[in-house]
Design goal:
- An eight-stranded antiparallel beta sheet has the order 1-2-3-4-8-7-6-5.
- It has helices spanning 3-11, 147-154, and strands at residues 36-46, 51-58, 63-72, 75-84, 102-108, 111-120, 125-130, 135-142.
- 10% of the residues lie in helices and 41% in strands.
- The protein is mostly beta strands.
């Protein structure tokens, strides 16, 4: 599967068409597919226990919260799209991809949402959604793997924005 096809499907928030990130994709491979500045590297954490990584922001008309290219050196570990919107700028429903291999908490603003992240590790996809209303919060695309590898090495650490004094992790 072509890296261009895979990234194009992810860039438009098409989880049904997502074939998984091909192995060995490096940041320069995405030049011309996505619009980003390879020198503008930011810091964040992935995995459990958390490991410091860098990510690069890519332009997106679909992800209101941005599209992040998570890196290990120049290797792309994951694509993370935050708050995808429909063409009118509204919310999208989360896709029904069947029974997930695992579920984790997701974050919506200052709140932690138990079972908000549905992991389909063998497909190389995690779907973040609001369980209360079924709206899509984000997608994480990666090289197909198993749940333990996703949890330990790949999963971007969800962090609340503007945490409230009373907000607590479950």
């Amino acid at each position: 599967m072509s890296v261009h096809f895979a990234v194009a499907a992810f860039a438009v928030a098409d989880p049904q068409g997502w074939p998984g990130l091909p192995a060995g994709v490096r940041l320069p491979d995405l030049a011309g597919v996505l619009d980003f500045d390879p020198g503008d590297r930011r810091h964040g954490d992935t995995g459990e226990p958390a490991t410091g990584r860098t990510w690069v922001a890519a332009e997106s008309t679909v992800y209101a919260g941005g599209l992040r290219l998570w890196l290990d050196g120049d290797e792309v570990v994951a694509l993370e799209g935050i708050h995808p919107q429909d063409p009118a700028g509204g919310f999208r429903p989360a896709p029904d991809l069947g029974t997930p291999e695992a579920t984790y908490e997701a974050v919506l603003g200052p709140l932690y949402l138990p079972d908000g992240e549905l992991v389909y590790a063998a497909r190389g996809l995690a779907v973040r959604r609001n369980p209360a209303n079924g709206l899509l919060l984000g997608l994480v695309g990666f090289v197909p793997t198993d749940v333990e590898d996703y949890r330990a090495r790949i999963r971007p650490v969800p962090e609340p924005t503007r945490p409230l004094a009373t907000a607590r992790r479950p």
